[in-house]
Design goal:
Blueprint (H helix, E strand, L loop, with lengths): L9 H6 L5 E3 L2 E4 L1 E7 L12 E4 L2 E5 L5 E9 L9 E4 L2 E2 L2 E5 L2 E5 L7 E2 L6 E4 L11 E9 L2 E5 L2 E4 L1 H39 L4 H21 L2 E2 L3 H26 L5 H18 L4 H34 L22
Antiparallel strand pairs: 1-2, 2-15, 3-4, 3-6, 5-14, 6-13, 7-12, 7-15, 8-14, 9-10, 9-13, 11-16
Helix pairs in contact: 2-3, 3-4, 4-5, 4-6, 5-6
């Protein structure tokens, strides 16, 4: 097994990814040994371990697909040195052993999955678990489920070195997402309330619905543990993004007084079809389908931008105003996308 000896230069780490990195006095572990197994118990040293370089990323189509085990050796801590473990990204639940002693993990409530996407892991490694030699064995177990399974680089070092990394990740991934979720949800409900009072102003309707749609991916980022099975939660999140694009573009149409009912109908039909397929898609197809939905919405958005540019050109050329699909622009612009 690989002993974690950081290279002498950070530049070397950037150029040669298999090396272990030095972050302050903390070491980023990249060279490990990997074992994929259906067993939840700590595997024996004689198991079929193979060399591997982190990060680990593997798409799967099965729920409860077993476990990925990672092991590596560490030198004995000197003074107040290697006392904590930090992992900034892991999917899904994780547990950690040091010299055969379980030292912690992402303790999800019963029946819940710890996604780890926005839940960085920082563990204090007890002094009693260390040996005095340079053969301290750390083992990490990662639960495997449907869709992409991830284990990012593992940092081992003094707690004071790793605490700022954890704080930064926790703020950028967790707290900001929580704020965005609450903002989108409140704004969406407020706009729907305005629309209920002013039914003729449908821009309030579509802005409110688009805000609620965007609150779904923000909720995915904000929660520590998936409220439902994670694969379903991820699919619902992608569908929320799809329909956010549909409703946001409809809001732009109302705001700019552009009437394109046929384009809106085709847009909604295509996005609904792609979203329906996503419900049953395999792990390898889910992201290409999401990208397809994004491309469809981008094409519709480019049409809106073309309308705006053509309208600006007509205005600058002093053409007498008239109405193209409700926009108040000259008919000579020929911008009827019906």
């Amino acid at each position: 097994m690989a002993i974690c000896e950081p290279p002498s230069s950070l530049l070397l780490v950037l150029l040669v990814s298999p090396a272990n990195a030095q972050v302050g006095n903390a070491t980023a572990i990249r060279r490990v040994e990997l074992l994929e197994s259906a067993e939840a118990e700590l595997p024996p040293p004689s198991a079929d371990w193979r060399p591997f370089v982190l990060p680990y990323q593997k798409p799967l189509d099965r729920t409860d697909a077993g476990f990925a085990w990672f092991r590596f050796t560490l030198p004995a801590p000197t003074g107040d040195g290697l006392l904590s473990l930090y992992i900034n990204n892991h999917m899904y639940g994780i547990k950690v052993w040091l010299n055969g002693e379980e030292v912690g993990g992402s303790d999800a409530p019963p029946g819940r999955q710890a996604t780890g996407w926005n839940l960085p892991l920082l563990l204090r490694l007890p002094a009693s678990a260390w040996r005095e030699d340079n053969n301290n064995e750390m083992v990490i177990r990662l639960e495997l489920h449907r869709f992409t399974n991830v284990l990012a680089s593992v940092f081992v070092g003094a707690h004071d070195e790793l605490w700022p990394l954890w704080q930064q990740r926790h703020f950028s991934q967790g707290q900001l997402s929580q704020f965005s979720f609450y903002l989108c949800a409140v704004m969406g409900l407020f706009m729907l309330g305005l629309w209920a009072c002013r039914r003729h102003d449908t821009q309030y309707l579509w802005f409110g619905v688009s805000s609620l749609c965007w609150s779904v991916p923000m909720l995915y980022m904000a929660v520590s543990y998936a409220p439902i099975r994670h694969d379903w939660f991820l699919v619902l999140t992608l569908i929320g993004i799809n329909f956010y694009a549909v409703t946001a573009i409809r809001f732009l149409h109302r705001l700019l007084k552009i009437e394109m009912p046929n384009v809106e109908g085709w847009h909604l039909s295509l996005i609904t079809a792609v979203s329906f397929i996503e419900l049953f898609a395999s792990a390898k197809l889910i992201m290409p389908l999401s990208l397809l939905a994004d491309m469809i919405s981008l094409i519709v958005l480019l049409n809106v931008l073309r309308l705006c540019c053509s309208a600006a050109m007509c205005t600058n050329s002093s053409v007498p105003p008239a109405a193209i699909p409700g926009s108040g622009l000259a008919p000579t612009c020929s911008l009827h996308f019906r």
